[in-house]
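We modelled the chain as a single entity of 99 amino acids. Its sequence is:
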Amino acid sequence: MHYTLALFFIIPGTVLYCFIGATAGSLTESENAVNGPVAIASIVVGIVFGLLAIFVVSYYAKREFNKIVAEQEQHEREEEGFSADETLGEESIHAAAAV
């Protein structure tokens, strides 16, 4: 399940790399492929949006990752706390029985 979601979130980077590769390929094949300010602007805008998509996905993925790590740490602390309380409870029962 997690790998399926991970594959979904690598799409913006993959699209950006494909776009850059296709653009570079078209530039090397033909000298007249990029001909004018509109073509150059569309290439620049495409690259900027691709980088922006990668940044946004990375930001939200990092935020979610930090939230998951914090929840796991809290869960581990709670488990350690309960095991310490149970141990103290058993010791106090044994001490009361000995008196």
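As a brief sanity check on the tokenised model: The helical segments are 2-9, 11-29, 37-98. The mean pLDDT is 75.
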